[in-house]
Amino acid sequence: MRYQEIMETLSECRLGAVLIAEDSTIVSVNAMGDRLLHGQGKLPGTRLQDLAAPLCEESEEVRYASVAFGEYLLRCPSPAAEDLPEGCRLVVFRAADKDACHDMLMNVINQISESVILCDADSRIWLLNDAAVKMDSIVTQDVLGNGISNVYATRDGSELIVPQTIRDKQIKRNVRQYYTTRYGKDVDIVASSYPIVQNGQVLGGFSIMEDWSTVDSLHKQIIDLQEKLTDRRAGTRGKSALSAKYHFTDIISISPAMSSVVAQCRQVAKTGSSVMIYGETGTGKELFAQSIHNASRRADGPFLAINCAAIPENLLESLLFGTEKGAYTGAERRPGLFEQANGGTLLLDEINSMNISLQSKLLRVLQDGVIRRVGGASEIQVDVRVLSNINIPPYQAIAEDKLRQDLFYRLGVVNINVPPLRERREDIPLLVKHFIMQCNEKLVRNVAGIDEKTLHIFQGYAWPGNVRELQHAIEHAMNILPDDACTITPDYLPRHIDAAPAAPVAPPPAASGPSLSHTIKGIERSAICKALREHHGNISETARVLHMSRQNLQYRIKRYQIDIPALLQGE
To answer: CB within 10 Å: which end of the chain, N or C, has fewer?
Structure first.
């Protein structure tokens, strides 16, 4: 088709088109292009670079050209033409005022601290801002288009506030609601909800929400500060400032594996038993320890933590049990961590790095609740709950003489296993969003997210450093990302991640019969294959009927080595 005919056809479709030379000089323009660029028939001979520079650049990212106040243009794919003059190319574009307005408003909405949820007239979720994503620990793409009642359920069985607003066409202000997401997270909010009505027609409704648990926490902090100020003025000892900052609500996850661990820890928090938390480096063991303390009856007491691997043996003993004056050269009379943590919780991090001889001294504290300072003669009664972290399996530590077996039975009354990131890959998109929001605030950036290729790399990487390594990768990328870029691409990832081979698919166990795990994986693979056949290989439709995100489905297709073309040919 001749380029003149193409340009006329594009104009009829309300698309602008210009034919430009190598230096961006306009050779020809169609009627819609002249109108969109305010050319008034005088565009030939001028440079498109001077009028709308972004239209000259071929880019995968959205780049708007502003030609007048409130008027934006966006480049479109150019059709192939048979007779283009030598050295010329065709540039196609369209009006993008609403697109640019939408993106600007979304940027505004994502910067506000209140959570916002928008639904259509049928109460299907249309939008969640970044604050809502953070509060609810939800991946937006997984819930868009879902009925709000399929994603959230109030704990008392009452109706959610947004559907009420849409049905009644009435504003509802400052309503307190407790709800649980379909991923198991409990949320306590105060919300104001508004219907969207135009010419008598209800288009939808939205709710602006505050996380009441955060507000409540701030109230408690204010009260604590007031108490400390009052105690200081009265000359008395105030409440300990040694406290844990993390709560279970700070754990970012939608995976069943993590939900199970959180549920166990919530139950354990109600008791006073010792807890040993096992997890690989970077899985967030201390986050769980602090959350257990803050959910326990000792939450108002001190929380102290010490890394046993970072302190020499002789100094570690003094730090734990305290010293009496003259115990050794330069020793002063000082209480140890057990005394300072009295009435609260003490976390022993990397307990397997503690010397075996010192572990035996620790046994007595756990058995009898008494300590003796280094160089002291008297015994001191203490009331401390001891939590411990270990980065190798406890029984492996015992076999390698890194942990006394009798100490393990005292420290590990309850054992918690935190799964590595490679076993909870469905959490990766949510964690990525959380770390980007965190780094936006820390680095004063405005990065929106990662592209599909980067997510694909993340889903296939083994993550030996777990969540900490993912956090490092995001912060690394955002530090070197150009100021005008708003999406993280593979070019900005740490080299060892981008160059790493995909995590291998584990072979089936060599046993006389299939294991339960292998059987379940086989059932899952069969279900995915069946759904792919029924929807002719369409990823979006298959993901929808399987109630999972596109990213999770693509990861499983890769994990189970499903060849979609071969699968469809075999129908």
So the answer is: C
